[in-house]
Amino acid sequence: MVEEIRLAGSVLIWVTTLLAVACVVVHQLLARWWKTGSGRHVFTFEAVLALSLTLWSLRLVIPEGDWFQVVRLAAFAGMPFVLAWRIKIIVQTWRKERRRREEGL
Q1: I need a surface site. Which of 13, 33, 59, 64 has the fewest CB within 10 A?
Q2: Count helices and strands in the chain by DSSP H and E runs
Q3: Residue 76 vs residues 11, 25, 31, 36, 91: alpha-carbon distances, Å
Q4: CB burial readout 73-83, b (16+ within 10 A) else e
């Protein structure tokens, strides 16, 4: 039973990785993401997520070694930046909406 659960989790990781990479590819091909701050953020968020998931998927099929530590550092180096950027956008949007509501009253 434990092995079936592990396998199901691994399959979900691989499917999620493929979808995340597909988001990056489709976004790159179909959208002018670089034209706006929001577009750059969404694309960067997608790319960092896809990179991290790709690393996780590779880790499921390739044994850990010294190479993994370097790749892991590279894959996760962007995550704090992009998450902080997301928080900044959320707070800025909230403040703008709050000001708009207050001025409308």
Answers
A1: 64
A2: 3, 0
A3: 22, 20, 25, 24, 24
A4: eebeebeeebe
List the domain boundaries for the chain.
Answer: 2-104
pLDDT digits 0-9 by tens, 12-41? 999 999 999 999 999 999 999 999 988 999
State the DSSP code for 1.
-
Please spell the DSSP secondary structure of 24-71, one letter per residue.
HHHHHHH--GGGSHHHHHHHHHHHHHHHHHHHHHHHHHS---HHHHHH
Alpha carbon of 41 to those of 8, 45, 61: distances in Å?
A: 32, 6, 31
pLDDT of 105 > 70? The answer is no
Rounded to an integer, what distance in angstroms lies between the CA atom of residue 28 and that of residue 34? 9
Give dist(CA 54, CA 17) in Å, integer: 6
Residue 54 contacts residue 21 (beta carbons within 8 Å): yes
pLDDT band per the 50, 70, 90 thresholds, residue 43: very high
**pTM, whole model, 2 decimals?**
0.75
